[in-house]
Design brief:
Helix content: 40-55%
Radius of gyration: 24 Å
Strand order of the largest sheet: 2-1-3-4-5-6
Number of helices: 20
Oligomer: single chain
Distance between the termini: 41 Å
Largest sheet: 6 strands, mixed
Number of domains: 3
CATH superfamily of the largest domain: Aldolase class I
Structural class: alpha/beta
Strand content: 5-15%
């Protein structure tokens, strides 16, 4: 029997986020085998040493033989600090990281983080079972030679096991972290119905990750087992909202819609009352899917993130998108006509962007009344190692010398004036203080699911009416400011003028945001008065 600690290291210490489903799945597999597994989320910050000490102490008290974490560019240095402290008290403990980011940057991670012994490459179910078996038999401190592990002393990339073709053979994730969050009053979590993606976006690390192992490009769980997991989350953890982590719910092309239909019918048959957020490609749903979208809405699918990425045809080709700008508009109106809220995922600033590209994307957002979210106007491309866009930037000499596996924004622009205005807008957008608008989008979708059962129809109706008016005002303010900023950058940059406009924008927005915040707080107070909880 192996003793293993799986730690979800989260640097966002000021707010609860959802959990690593990968670690939860590994915990479930190991427990099936009879191993003792500690699974928890560690909220840590370099600015708060006590948070690291608390995580180290919790692991140390469990006395594991192995510790593993999912690595991201945002937490890799914190993992190394945590592992360094842990090895002082448990010198023989084996420390591993895994996940998409770790797989694509394994060599750099090992070179840069001395407390990490090895990197688990690809999907880790078979690798973790071999690790547990060896630890049960030999209690080793050297895991070189195990298929799927890039061990520090080995120095070369190992062979990887093939992808598992049948996800139904893999147990649902252990929900220790969900339980901790639910005990603290959090009623949302995440869930995956599939792995892989049929898209081919040049910036996406998911496709690059899926190609490191032999096997099917996309694999899905059966709808019945997915809804089993949903029902367990509702019954055992009082979950009200689930974020579905699939890259695009409509995959695979030939069978995806029927799979969604079966999923919805099963949710409705079991009378689960849920807020469901999902992701889709812009070309993924068409007018002939109207009846399916009605069914999805009745089943709780009320919030979709659509990978629109740009309003410029030229930029869509840079991103290797199959969709056209017309698909972006079409899918927005299709979803909204069926009561599904659309969040348009846009990458505004990227190395090949021109001022005309930026204007086309801003015009798209404004036509959809989405420029009230100023963060959409300031979004920047994140470049991940070994993705197609990374290789293109390398060929074109646009990767900055200071680029590392942890610095996904260190690249040059073809037009430095575009780079400058992007940096200024991104650095300053928080002055617009539109955080409340992001929360209200979620709250309004929640109301469409829960308002009647909670007895809050009037309060949500008032919030929706106020929201629509404020959104129109903010959208116009932001769009005008954005276009003026582009004109200023294209002519001759004037920092004093830009900052004056920014202060004016904040002053214009303030009464609208205060009004919106008051309406938001009124709904939340009404919920408390009615003795009910809301997911957001």
């Amino acid at each position: 029997m192996a003793r293993i600690s799986l730690v979800d290291v989260d640097p966002y210490i000021k707010r609860k986020t959802y959990e690593s489903l990968g670690l939860g799945t590994l915990a479930a597999i190991l427990r099936q085998r009879g191993d003792q597994v500690q699974l928890f989320k560690a909220y840590v910050s370099a600015e708060q040493p006590a948070s690291l000490e608390s995580a180290e102490r919790r692991i140390r008290e469990f006395q594991p033989r192995l510790v593993g974490s999912t690595a991201y560019n945002t937490n890799i240095k914190l993992i190394d600090v945590l592992y360094t402290a842990l090895k002082q008290s448990l010198p023989d403990v084996v420390t591993l990281v895994g996940g998409i980011f770790a797989t694509l940057n394994a060599q750099a991670i090992l070179e840069d983080n001395p407390a990490i012994d090895g990197v688990v490459l690809g999907e880790a179910e078979d690798t973790i079972l071999e690790i547990a078996e060896r630890m049960t038999r030999d209690r080793p401190t050297d895991l070189s030679g195990i298929c799927g592990i890039w061990w520090r002393s080995a120095g070369t990339r190992p062979e990887l096991p093939a992808l598992r073709s049948n996800l139904d053979d893999i147990p649902a994730p252990a929900r220790d972290i969900t339980h901790e969050h639910a005990s603290a009053g959090q009623v949302f979590t995440s869930l995956a119905t599939a792995r892989g993606c049929y898209g081919a976006c040049s910036f996406c690390s998911v496709n690059t990750f899926s190609q490191v192992q032999r096997g099917l490009r996309w694999r899905g769980r059966s709808p019945r087992l997915v809804v089993d997991e949903m029902e367990s989350l509702v019954r055992n953890h009082q979950i009200q909202a689930i974020f579905i982590e699939d890259s695009s719910l409509e995959d695979p092309p030939a069978l995806g819609k029927q799979r969604i239909r079966e999923l919805c019918e099963e949710i409705l048959r079991r009378r689960l009352h849920l807020f469901l957020r999902f992701e889709a490609r812009a070309e993924g749903f068409q007018k002939e899917d109207a009846d399916l979208l009605d069914l999805m809405r009745r089943a709780g699918f009320c919030y979709v993130i659509v990978g629109m990425e740009s309003g410029s045809e030229k930029v869509l080709r840079v991103y290797n998108k199959r969709a056209h700008s017309s698909d972006n508009t079409q899918c927005y109106h299709l979803f909204t006509s069926h009561g599904i809220f659309v969040y348009p995922s846009i990458i505004m600033f990227q190395p090949y962007a021109t001022f005309d590209d930026l204007r086309e994307s801003a015009a798209l957002l404004f036509s959809l009344n989405k420029t009230y979210r100023f963060d959409l106007l300031t979004s920047r491309l994140s470049v991940y190692s070994n993705t197609p866009i990374y290789r293109r930037l390398q060929r074109d000499g646009l990767i900055a010398p200071e680029f590392t596996y942890r610095s996904e924004l260190n690249y040059h622009y073809v037009n430095p004036d575009v780079q400058r205005v992007g940096a200024q807008l991104t650095a300053q957008w928080k002055k617009t203080d539109d955080f409340v608008m992001r929360e209200i989008d979620y709250l309004l979708c929640t109301g469409r699911i829960f308002a009647e059962s909670l007895g809050l129809q009037r309060q949500f109706q008032d919030l929706e009416e106020t929201s629509e008016e404020v959104k129109r005002l903010l959208s116009a303010n932001h769009y005008t400011f954005f276009l003026r900023s582009l004109d200023l950058a294209e002519r001759q940059w004037d920092a004093e003028c830009f900052n004056r406009w920014l202060d004016d924008l904040a002053a214009q927005n303030r009464p609208h945001l205060e009004r919106m915040l008051a309406a938001y707080q009124s709904v939340r107070k009404a919920a408390v008065d009615h003795g009910v909880s809301l997911p957001f």
